[in-house]
Model the fold of this input.
Amino acid sequence: MSNRLRIALTKGRLQDQSVALFERSGMDCTPIKHPGRRLVHSIPNYPLDAVLSKAPDVITYVEHGTCDLGIVGKDTIMEKGGSFYEVMDLGFGRCRFALAVPKGADFYGTYKTRVIASKYPNVAKAFFVAKGMDVDIIKIEGSVELAPILGLADGIVDIVETGATLKANGLVPIETVAPISARLIVNTASMKLYKNEILDFISRCEKELKEAQEG
Ligand code: PRP
Done:
């Protein structure tokens, strides 16, 4: 294989699990595990360079073709959208989008327009549009659980993993909006130009995920 592929990895938890997957498939990820201040890392025994970035930037780099591949959560894909191939559910980073309200609140039992706070306004909007429900959506950047506590919103649409954050703030999930997990995405032109290299990479990941499932 002659062409080196470039992959954008979401920094943090997904980065660690991506690296673990690569290592199980025989890639030497020492440079990614000891990054220092460096942001681009070459895998010495496989034609792949890894870029570490924030989740929305993973999509931007893959869309623009500066990265051929990306690993990013379905949450970011749903919120940001974009033009790329979503080729594989990697199975890790599992959590869900949920609608949560203050404990005891009768969210659906009123005719007044409900206010929803979310870090993911597009996801929240699509959820309520599909229900045919008119809601006001307020974008929050930080801890969205604060919005109902402070009386700004009737409910939130947010990521729930263990449910501990909701519980600690007197909120209960009343509906799952969508399941979330890490996805492998591919630039549309790269898929044609570097088909063999990309298929090799995908089949390595698939093999490892299958073995882990059977495991
Ligand atoms: C997410 C989400 C909740 C928390 C839920 O935030 O916004 O606050 O995780 O997790 P739990 O159900 O296990 O309590 P995250 O930690 O991803 O940080 P963020 O605020 O930077 O999105």
Notes: The mean pLDDT is 95. The first strand starts at residue 5 and ends at 10.
